[in-house]
């Protein structure tokens, strides 16, 4: 692949030697799994006739900013577990000084692929840009698509079905735009305080009453408000964040599955494997073999 073609088809990084990437090209979908090799500053840019869905699996920055055309720029520092959607034709750019080895998956979706036409009429929809949002269903679909493309460089029936489901979910998201939290949900500062606390205590068993106390709510009202804001209950959110950290740790050959399980707060490998499979659709060992 020539450099000029790459710059038009994939997110362009400068300097390019700071990252390594694995590219998989299917019918209607390109997957781009990017991992930083150094904790050094880089910038990035993308603009294309394809939609771009970004799953920030492990992204924390000391400084930086991100801009999607049509939205205010963001200087948010903790990006792990967040999604970004850049519609075709929109400019996406930014820079960052990472505090961790960044790991992100980019999905480039062809709006005109036959898989997403017919009654879906995906290519006719004028999608709006979205920056650093959380959506449980989209996140799970992105994780499954990533695992499927890691497992096979050729399209599979399951993978194409996942792409169709992704198209449906993006349409549902577009039709239910909610710039403000759902009524009865947590406010912005409450969401941030709780999410930051969970991120800092991933390997611990955090009590519901502890989380509720952070935002001055009873456990009952907190659980309802949390689900409205994040799309899933506190415990499931906590487990999902643990598994995302586990996926990053599994990329290191020196870490055994048992040690990874303990690092993210599971006392038994069996319970870790069950939770990992439930969220990602594969076992920790199969996930690691896929990376290889």
Provide structural commentary.
By secondary structure, the protein is α+β, with helices and mostly antiparallel strands. The protein has two domains: 3-175, Jelly Rolls (Sandwich); 188-291, Orthogonal Bundle (Arc Repressor Mutant, subunit A). 40% of the residues lie in helices and 22% in strands. The strands form two sheets. A six-stranded antiparallel β-sheet has the order 2-3-9-5-7-10, covered by helices on one side. It has a four-stranded antiparallel β-sheet with strand order 1-4-8-6. A hairpin with a 2-residue loop joins strand 2 and strand 3 (29-36). Helix 2 (136-151) packs antiparallel against helix 3 (157-175). Residues 1-7 and 177-182 have low confidence and may be disordered.
Task: Please give a handful of descriptors for the protein shown.
disordered N terminus, six-stranded antiparallel sheet, four-stranded antiparallel sheet, 292 residues
In CATH, the homologous superfamily of the largest domain goes by the name Jelly Rolls
Q: Please give the count of helices.
A: 10
In CATH terms, what is the architecture of the largest domain? Sandwich
| Structural class determined from secondary elements | alpha+beta
What low-confidence regions span 5 or more consecutive residues with pLDDT below 50? 1-7, 177-182
Specify the overall morphology.
Answer: globular
Query: Span from first to last CA?
Result: 22 Å
* Main β-sheet, spatial strand arrangement: 2-3-9-5-7-10
Order of helices and strands, N to C?
Answer: HEEEEEEEEEEHHHHHHHHH
CATH C-level name of the largest domain: Mainly Beta
Q: What is the residue-averaged pLDDT?
A: 87
Helical residue percent band: 40-55%
- Measured on Cα atoms, how large is the radius of gyration? 19 Å
How can the largest sheet be summarized?
A: 6 strands, antiparallel
């Amino acid at each position: 692949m020539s450099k000029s073609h790459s710059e038009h088809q994939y997110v362009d990084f400068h300097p390019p030697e700071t990252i390594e990437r694995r590219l998989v090209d299917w019918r209607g979908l390109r997957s781009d799994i990017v991992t930083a090799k150094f904790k050094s500053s880089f910038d990035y840019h993308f603009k294309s006739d394809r939609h771009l869905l970004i799953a920030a699996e492990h992204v924390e920055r000391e400084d930086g900013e991100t801009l999607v055309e049509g939205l205010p720029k963001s200087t948010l520092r903790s990006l792990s577990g967040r999604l970004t959607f850049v519609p075709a034709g929109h400019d996406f750019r930014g820079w960052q000084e990472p505090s961790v080895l960044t790991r992100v998956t980019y999905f480039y979706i062809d709006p005109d692929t036959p898989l997403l036409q017919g009654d879906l009429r995906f290519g006719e929809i004028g999608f709006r840009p979205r920056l650093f949002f959380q959506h449980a269903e989209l996140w799970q679909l992105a994780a499954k698509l990533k695992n499927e493309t890691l497992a096979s460089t050729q399209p599979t029936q399951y993978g194409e079905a996942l792409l169709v489901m992704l198209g449906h979910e993006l349409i549902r998201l577009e039709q239910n735009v909610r710039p403000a939290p759902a009524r009865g949900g947590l406010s912005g500062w409450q969401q941030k305080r709780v999410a930051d606390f969970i991120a800092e205590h991933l390997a611990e068993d955090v009590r519901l009453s502890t989380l509720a106390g952070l935002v001055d709510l009873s456990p009952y009202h907190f659980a309802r408000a949390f689900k409205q804001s994040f799309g899933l209950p506190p415990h499931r959110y906590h487990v999902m964040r643990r598994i995302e950290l586990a996926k990053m740790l599994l990329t290191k050959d020196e870490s055994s599955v048992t040690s990874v399980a303990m690092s993210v707060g599971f006392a038994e490998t069996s319970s870790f494997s069950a939770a990992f499979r439930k969220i990602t659709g594969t076992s920790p060992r199969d996930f690691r073999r896929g990376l290889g």
